[in-house]
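Team,

Forwarding the record for the chain on the shared tracking sheet. I've put the sequence and predicted structure together so nobody has to dig through attachments.
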Amino acid sequence: MKISFPVEPSFDTQRTQFLDAARAAGAVLTTYAHPLKGPNGEALATDVAWLGKPDASRVLMTLSGTHGVEGYYGSTCQAAWLRELASQPLPDDVAVLMVHLINPWGTAWVRRVNEDNVDLNRNYLDFAAALPDNSRYEALHEIYTCRDIDGPQRQHADDLLARNVEALGWSGVQAIVGAGQYLHADGLFYGGQQPTWSNRTLRDIAGRFLKPAQVAFVFDLHTGAGAFGHPMLMSITQRAYPGLADAQRLFGPWLYTLLTHANAEVSET
């Protein structure tokens, strides 16, 4: 399978490529319109393609665009897979569900986050319960929100970073920041204060298409992790969940698991 990635990002081009491939494969299409527009005034949407019987008990689901700009990779992969599936019949009790660009605003505007600066990976929570407390991010926030290239504010941020790296190590700083936070809307890995449009849309898709499934494998396509040119399987979750053990048995050492709650509690020693 040969894949050619776009030289210049274009939401409309990616969407057209995906929809054309889905129609050619005989997929049933559903569209969720986003309320905002792209940088060129283009309409934004998340599109869903379903191949296979509607009551299939086993579903393979792929999801692109969780981190907006990374959707150009995920979208191109999905379109390529659809072109292959057009000539390959699925087993009787297997269906494929492709969710195309779940964060269409981030993809169109070439941003990792959504329209509210929310990192979607940190937004899939029960907002009726208390939000995760990552109070240790407070000491790091101004490092990552300093916009000055030089001058006293830049020097202050650099000095603050140096002190924290000396105290915690670079991996310790990374773990605290990577755990996400829910207080600073202008900060890194902000999880939001309520379910985002993308969150609500994905839940609607899952409820609509996955109810008959007894087994569902979900691959959320990202970039920027692992060795160059090699795939990396990751499971990022606040705490261990029942299906994690099954995934670890299936993928073995290929699966890297990141428990964000544990990583927020980094020891200073």
